[in-house]
Amino acid sequence: MNIHFYKYQGTGNDFVIVDNRNGEYSSLTTQQIAHLCDRRFGIGADGLMMLENHADYDFQMKYYNADGREGSMCGNGGRCLSAFARQMGIEKPAVKFIAVDGPHEASFRENGWVNLKMQDVDWIEVGNMYFYLNTGSPHFVKFVTDVQEVDVYEEGRAIRYNERFAAEGTNVNFVQEMDKGIFVRTYERGVEDETFSCGTGVTAAALTAAPAETGEYTIPVETIGGHLEIQFARNGERSFSNIWLCGPATLVFEGNINI
């Protein structure tokens, strides 16, 4: 099979994207997708996305983890796929699409940033030195004093595969509060390693770092891959709405590959 693909990245979270609106790539297997995402033997990416048609939305987002299995919502992926949809001719000031966790909206800034509306959050588990919540994907959030000193692979993997999470998995975020905003590093399930950025992860981290008072907030977020912003309204102790993940989404290159 010959595949025409596009490579996008959002703060270093990178994706192989294909236009599957005619269904020509629907037969890709788990093994083939994993091969395409392999950084030594394939194109290399944190995941693969398909742009697909949907009767009620501008498009549908299909997301696969780097291991080739269909994944939960990917925030940076949603921003990149929205930018890709625009490149493919879906040219609107804002688009609406459906993903595995439900409907989303995306709007575009002149500086190349894409703003993605996330699902509301009305439940957060607060434990001893951690938070656990779902922002489209499940996230275990742990605050640390020096995020640069954390062994994200070893510590993240230990939590992801502990007795509680081993079966379904969880993403693990290590967060340091800064003078302005937060710095977040993430171990991602499905990739099974640290990624340069994770959209649902920085969203989870920002919500748990929010001031206790109700109101509207913008939290600046630094990741290894660059800068993001999370905008949201805090409605109560563990309730958040109007959540937006904002940041760059950039075409890296396009090409063809035979598999």
Automatic annotation (TrEMBL):
Localization annotation: Cytoplasm
Catalytic reactions of this protein: (2S,6S)-2,6-diaminopimelate = meso-2,6-diaminopimelate
One of the protein's GO biological processes: lysine biosynthetic process via diaminopimelate
Pathway it works in: Amino-acid biosynthesis; L-lysine biosynthesis via DAP pathway; DL-2,6-diaminopimelate from LL-2,6-diaminopimelate: step 1/1
Main location as per UniProt: cytoplasm
Key words of the record: Amino-acid biosynthesis, Cytoplasm, Isomerase, Lysine biosynthesis
Xref: InterPro entries: DAP_epimerase_DapF (IPR001653)
Residues with site note (Could be important to modulate the pK values of the two catalytic cysteine residues): H139, E188
Catalytic residues identified in the record: C74 (proton donor), C198 (proton acceptor)
A Gene Ontology molecular function term of the record: diaminopimelate epimerase activity
Quaternary structure, from the entry: Homodimer.
Physiological role: Catalyzes the stereoinversion of LL-2,6-diaminopimelate (L,L-DAP) to meso-diaminopimelate (meso-DAP), a precursor of L-lysine and an essential component of the bacterial peptidoglycan.
NCBIfam families associated with the record: DapF (TIGR00652)
PANTHER family: DIAMINOPIMELATE EPIMERASE (PTHR31689:SF0), DIAMINOPIMELATE EPIMERASE, CHLOROPLASTIC (PTHR31689)
Record protein name field: Diaminopimelate epimerase
Species for this entry: Chitinophaga niabensis
Top-level taxonomy: Bacteria, Pseudomonadati, Bacteroidota, Chitinophagia, Chitinophagales
